[in-house]
Amino acid sequence: MSETDFEKPDPHDFLGIDSLLSDEEALLRDTVRSYVENEINPHVAEWWDEGRIPHQDLAAAFGELGMLGMHLEGYGCAGTSATQYGLACLELEAGDSGIRSFVSVQGSLVMFPIWKFGSEEQKQSWLPRMAKGEVIGCFGLTEADSGSDPSSMRTSARKDGADWLINGSKMWITNGSIADVAIVWARTDQGVRGFIVPTDTPGFSAPEIKMKASLRASVTSELILDDVRVPEELVLPGVASMRGPLSCLNEARFGIAFGAMGAARSCYETALSYSKEREQFGTPIGAFQLTQRKLVEMMVAVQRGTLLAIHLGRRKDEGDLSPEQVSFGKFDNVRNALEVARTARSVLGANGITLEYPVFRHMANLETVYTYEGTHEIHTLVMGQAITGHQAFN
Ligand code: TGC
Ligand code: FAD
After folding, report:
1. What is the pLDDT of residues 121-171, one digit of tens each?
2. What is the distance, to the nearest Å, from the Cα of residue 73 to the centroid of all Cα atoms in its chain?
3. Which of 245, 287, 274 is nearest to 347 (CA)?
4. Is 97 in the pocket of ligand 1 (CB under 6 A)?
5. Cβ of 370 less than 6 Å from ligand 2
6. The pLDDT of residue 187
7. Which active-site residues does the annotation give?
8. What residue ranges define each of the domains in the chain, with the CATH number in brackets?
9. 371 within ligand 2 shell (Cβ under 6 A)
10. I need a surface site. Which of 12, 106, 297, 385 has the fewest CB within 10 A?
C-alpha cells in the first residue's frame, strides 16, 4: 500500500479508536449517544441555568435503558462489562457531568455497596427497584470538616436495643434532597459501617445546597441525621472499615476517567465546528495557525485520554485494575479535560461564555469533577505513594 492509498484520519476519531470496540460495545455506545443527543442536549443548558434536573423522568428513562447499576450482575441489573459502563459514562458526560453523576452515584455509589457488602435480603429488596429507577439513592461520606480525609468523620452510630441510632451530618451529597434512600457511612464501636437509610426516616433531612456555579444540572445537598433510628437489617453486614466507602469510590472514579473524555470531546467538537464557520480578517479562524494549534492539542488530548480509559476498562474487565491505576485515569483525564474545555472556550471568543454552546458549562462542571471523588492532589499522592513507597497525606 502506498502512502497515497491511506484514508485521511477522521477529525472525530483521528486514531481510529472505534476499531478497538466490539460490536456490542459500539452498539451500547451508540444507543447512549443517541439518547443524549435527543433527550439531554436539547434541554440541559436550561436545566443547568435553572439549577435543576427532571430527576424522576431521567431515573425512569435510565432504568428503561438498563443503565442503572449496569455493570453489576443479577438483581435486575444489566451485567455489562466495565468497558461498556465506562463508554456509557463517556457519552452521558458528553451531555453534562451532572447527568453522568446522576447515573454513577446510583450505580457505583449506592447500588454497588449493597451488591458488594449487602445481605441477600438487602440485595433482593433494593437493587431491582434501583435498577428500574423507582428508587433513587445518594451516598453520604463527605462531611463539612472531613473531605479529603473521610476517615476523620464525626457522624456516628450506636446500638440502642435492637436498632442503631445515627447522629451527625454529611455535606456535598449528590442527589441528597431527591433521594429515597441514603447510604450513610458512620463510625461505630465496630469500625466504619454503612447504613441503608430510607430518607423518610424521622430525624433525617436533606436541605439542598444552592448558589452553585458548577454541576448545576445536579442536586447537591447536606444530610442531617438527628437520632435517626434504623434496624439491624439496614446495616451492610459485609464491611466494617474505610474499605467499604473507598471500594465504592474505585467504581465511580473509573467511570469518571471515561466521563471526563466525553465532556472534553464535546468541547473539542464544538470548537472545531465553530472554527470552520467563524470568520475574522476575512478568513475562517480555523485557518489561523494559532487556532489550529489549539484544535490539535484538544484533539490529541481527547484521543489520548480515550485510549487510556479503554485500556483501564480492559484491565478492569480482566479483574486486574488496581485503585492506584484508577487514580491515574481520574488524575490525568480530568486535568486534560479541564484544559481542553478552557482552550475550547477561548476558540469560541465571547460566545464561549454563554450557555448557547456547551463549552462553558462543561468547563464549570469539570471544576467539580477535579475536586470530587478524590481531589487532583489526593490522586497525586495515591500515585506518589505507589511509586515511592512513602505516604505523604500527613
Ligand atoms: P487507608 O488507611 O490507606 O485505608 C483504610 C482501609 O481502606 C482500604 N483502602 C481501599 N479499599 C478499596 N479501594 C481503595 N481505593 C482503598 N484505599 C484504601 C485499605 O486497604 C484499608 O482497608 P482495611 O480493611 O485494612 O481497613 O485509608 P485512609 O483513610 O488513610 O485514606 C487514604 C485516602 C486519602 C486515599 C482516602 O481517604 C481517599 O481516597 N480520600 C479522598 C476522599 C474522596 O475521594 N471522597 C469522595 C467522596 S464521594 C464523592 O465525591 C462522590 S461525587 C459523586 C458524583 O456526583 O459523581
Ligand atoms: P478539602 O479536603 O478541604 O481540600 C481542600 C484543598 O486541600 C484541595 O485542593 C485538596 O486537594 C487539598 N488537600 C487536602 N488534603 C491534602 C493533602 N494531604 N495534601 C495536599 N493537598 C491536600 N461527597 C460525598 O460523600 N458524596 C457525594 O455524592 C458527593 N458529591 C459531591 C458533589 C459536588 C458538586 C461536590 C463539589 C462535591 C461532592 N462530594 C461528595 C464531596 C467531595 O468528595 C469533596 O468535596 C472532596 O472529597 C474534597 O473535599 P473538600 O471539598 O472538603 O476539600
Report:
1. 999 999 999 999 999 999 999 999 999 999 999 999 999 999 999 999 999
2. 20
3. 274
4. no
5. no
6. 98
7. 373
8. 17-131 (1.10.540.10), 137-240 (2.40.110.10), 244-388 (1.20.140.10)
9. yes
10. 12
